[in-house]
Amino acid sequence: MKTLPLAAGLLTIATAALAETPVLTVLTYDSFTPEWGPGPAIEKGFEATCGCDVQYVMAGDGAAVLARVQLEGAKTDADVVVGLDTNLTAAASATGLFAPVAVPATNLPVPFEDANFAPFDWGYFAFVYDKTKLDTPPKSFVELAASDLKIIIQDPRSSTPGLGLLMWVKAAYGEGAAQVWADLADNIVTVTPGWSEAYGMFLEGESDLVLSYTTSPAYHLIAETDDTKAAAAFDEGHYVQVEVAGKLASTDQPALADAFLAYLTSDAAQSVLPVTNWMYPAVTPAAGLPAGFETLIAPTKSLLLPAAEAEEARAGAIAEWQTALSR
Amino acid sequence: MADRAVALRIAALGVALLLAALTLGSAIIVAARATSWTLGPADGAALRFTLLQAALSAGLSALLAVPVARALMRRRFLGRGVLIRLMAAPFVLPVVVAVLGLLAVFGRAGPVNGALAALGLPALSIFGLHGVVLAHVFLNLPLAVRIILMGWQAIPAERLRLAQSLGFSDRAMFRHIELPMLRAVLPGAGAVIFLLCLTSFAVALTLGGGPKSSTLELAIFQALRFDFDLGRAALLAALQFALCAAVTVATARVASPFGFGAGLDRAVLPFAPRGWRAALDAVAIAAAALLLLAPLLAVVVRGVPGLLDLPSGVWPAALRSVLVALASAALAVAAALVLALALAAVPLGRFGRGIEMVAMLPLAASGLVMGVGLFLVIHPVARPESLALPVTVLVNATLSLPYLFRLLLPQARQVVADYGRLSASLGMGARARLRWVILPRLSRPLGYGAGLAAALSMGDLGVIALFAGDQGATLPLMVQRLMGAYRMEQAAGAALLLVSLSFGVFWLFDRIGDRNADA
C-alpha cells in the first residue's frame, strides 16, 4: 500500500521534469524519421544545443503533410513542418497557417523566393536507367517518345514526383504539353500511386527507365557499391524539386522553431541530408558533397515554375494528362 | 428464453450502431468540414471503371472457384489440407507485396514471358484491365474457394449418401445437391469480392496501366491528399456506400438458404467419380495451385536475402503487428458472432435486413475516409499518435467483420433451423447451447474467419499510416518506409517476415477451428 503514494510522487516529479523541457513538435513525411533517414541525426544534433525535446510526427509524403496541417488547422500541436515541396507551397501559404521565416542563402540552381518557407534540400527529376541494359539513353522527351523504350511514372494525383513530372513537361513545352503526353502514351508501361512502387518495378526489370531523381544513382553507388544506374540527361532541362520547411503561426515555441529551421540549414544537418535523403543539400557543407556525387549528371538547364503558377496550372495539367493517356 | 433473445437483439443493435458510426459516421464528419460539393467529369469515368473491374473480378473469382472447390471437396491426396490452407495466403498478402509477386511471375522479366520468348511468341503485358482482374482473382479466389468448400461441408452426409445410393448422375448431383448449395453461398461470396474490389486502389492503379484505370478510391485519395476537397471525398464515399447497399440488397434477393434439413452431423467422404472427371479435377487443382502459389514462391525467393540484414526497428514493429492482429481478431469474432446469432434467431424481417446491410458497410468504407473521420474526432481531445494502436485495432476489426459475418451467417441460420427447436425443448440454457450446439458447428467458419481477421489486420496499412507517430510503426508501414528509401531488398525481407507472420496466425486459428469441428 505504501508503494502507491511513492509511485504517484515519482510520477509527479517525472511529469514536472518533462514539463520543464520544452517540446518541439516537427511534422514531417514518413521517410524523414526512420533509423536510415536524416531525422535521428538531426534530432540528436539539435537537442544537444537547444535544451529541448524534438518529437517527430509523420504523415505519408509531402502532400500528406500539408493535408495533415489543413486537417489540424490552428489547433495543431506541430511547431515546424519539414518536407513540403515547391508544388505545394502556394496551397500551404494560402491556408494562412504558416508564419514568415528567415530564408537562408542557398545554392539552389533556380531563384527561390518565399517568405514563409526555408529550402533545406533539392533535386532534379530525371529518368533513371540501367547502363548495362541501355547503351544510348534518350536525350529528350521527344527522343523518348519516338523510341520504343518503356517507362514507369507516378500518378500526379497521388504522388509528388508524379506531379513534378507533369510540371516538368508543362515548364518545357507549355501549350505543347498535351502533344508530348500523347506521344509518350505508348511508352508508359504503367502509372503507380507512389514513387516506391514505380522504382521497385523498375529494379525488377519491368521498364527501361523510371521517373526518379538525378541523385538516385548515388544511392546505388554509395550504399550498394553498384555503379550500373544512371540518370538520362534531357536537352529540355530538368525540373527542380525544392524541399522546404516552415514554421506554423500557431506555435507555442517560436524561438525554438526558428532555431530548428536555422539548424536544418547548418553545416551539421546539411552534411547528413545527401546520404540519407539522397538529395542535394540546400547549402553545400564545408567538406563538400560526399564522394560519388561527382559522378552524377549535372543538368545545364534548370526548370521550375513559380509556386503560384504551379498551383494555378495543376488542375488543368492533370486533366490534360488524363485525357492524353486515357485514349 | 424471451429475455435472452431480447438481450441478444440489443447487443446486436449496439454492434450495428457502432459499425454505422465508424463507417457512415466518419464520412459524415468529413462532410461536415466540407466547403464545396462538386464531382468532376473524371469521377464518372472512375465510377465506370470501378464497377467494370469489380464485376469482372468478382464474377471470374466466383466462377473459377466452383470447379476448384468441387475438386478439393471430393478428392483426397497427400498434402490436401496443407494446400487448402496455403491457398488462403494470397488473400492475406499486403497489396504491394502481392503485386510484386505477380510481376515476378507474369512481368516482363518473369518466367511466363521467358517461356513465351523461348517459343518465339510475343511478350504478354500484364498491365491493363486484364492485369487488374488477374490480380483481383489471385487475391480473392482463395476466399471464394473456401466459402464454397464450407458450403459443401455443411451439406449433411445423409443427403450425399442418399444421392449416391440413388445412383445420381453427375448432372443430377449438380442439380439437386450442388446447385442449391451454390445458390445459398455463391451470391454472398461474389458480393464480398465485388465490394472488396470496389475499394481497390493500389492494385487497380499499379497494374491498370494508366489513368484510364482510375478507381473511386483513387479519386478519394486525390481529394483528401492533394486537393483537400473534403466535400468531394465525402460524396465519393457516399457513392461507395450506395453501391454497397445496392449489392447487399440484390444479394439477399438472390441467395436462398438451401434447406437440406438436419442430418446426424457426421462427415462422410463424398462420391468421387473416376476416369476423365478425375483428370479434370486434377487439372483444376493444379491450375489453381500454380496461379496462387507461384507468386507466393516469388515473394519468398525475393525476401530471403533481405531477411539477414533487417533494420532493428523491424522487430518491435513485428511485435506490434502481431498484437494488433490478435486484438482485432478477438474483437471482430465477438462482434460478428453476436450479429450472426441475433440474425439467425429471428425470421428475416426489417430488423434482419437492416443488420445485414450494416454488417456489409465496412467493405465499402474507404479506409482513408474512415481514418480522416476518426482523426477529426480524436484530434481535438487527444494526440492521435498516442491512440494509434487502439484505433488501428478498432478499424481493422471493423474492416474484417463483414467476412466473418458472411462466413458465420449461413451456418448460424442452419444450426438454429436444425437444432433450435431441439435445444429449446431440452431446455438448454444460453451457455450450454453456445457450448454444445452452436460453437462446435460454427467452429470451422469461426476458426477460418478469426484467422482471416487476424491476417488481414496484420497486413493492413489503412489507418495506421495516418496515426502512426515516431514510435508506433507496424510491419506493413515498415515495408512501405523501406521501399520509400530505396531499400528494396530489406523491404522484401520485411515483407516475407510479414507474410510468414500473418500466414502463421491464420494457420493457427484455422487449425483450431478444424480440430474442434472434427472433435
Strand content of chain A: 15-25%
Count of runs of 4 or more consecutive helical residues of chain B: 20
How many strands in all of chain A? 12
What helical percentage do the residues of chain B reach?
over 70%
The second-level CATH architecture of the largest domain in chain A is 3-Layer(aba) Sandwich
In round numbers, the mean pLDDT of chain A is 89
How many extended strands of chain B?
Answer: 0
CATH homologous superfamily classification of the largest domain in chain A = Periplasmic binding protein-like II
Compute the gyration radius of chain B: what is it?
A: 23 Å
CATH first level of the largest domain in chain B = Mainly Alpha
Describe the structure in your own words.
- The complex is a heterodimer of chains A (327) and B (519).
- Chain A is an alpha/beta fold.
- Chain A folds into two domains: 20-122 and 241-295, D-Maltodextrin-Binding Protein, domain 2 (3-Layer(aba) Sandwich); 123-239 and 300-326, D-Maltodextrin-Binding Protein, domain 2, CATH 3.40.190.
- Helices cover 40% and strands 20% of the residues of chain A.
- Chain A is built from twelve helices and twelve strands.
- In chain A, strands 1, 2, 3, 4, 5, 6, 7, 8, 9, 10, 11 and 12 form a twelve-stranded mixed β-sheet that branches.
- In chain A, strand 1, helix 2 (39-50) and strand 2 form a beta-alpha-beta unit.
- With 519 residues, chain B is an all-alpha fold.
- Chain B folds into two domains: 1-32 and 308-519, MetI-like fold (Orthogonal Bundle); 46-299, MetI-like fold, CATH 1.10.3720.10.
- In chain B, 77% of the residues lie in helices and 0% in strands.
- Chain B is built from 20 helices and no strands.
- In chain B, helix 10 runs antiparallel to helix 11 (230-254), helix 12 crosses helix 20 (488-518) and helix 13 runs antiparallel to helix 17.
- The longest helix of chain B is centred in the C-terminal third of the chain and has 38 residues, at 388-425.
- Chain B is globular.
- The two termini of chain B are 29 Å apart.
- At the A-B interface, strand 2, helix 3, strand 7, helix 8 and helix 9 of A face helix 4, helix 9, helix 10, helix 15 and helix 19 of B.
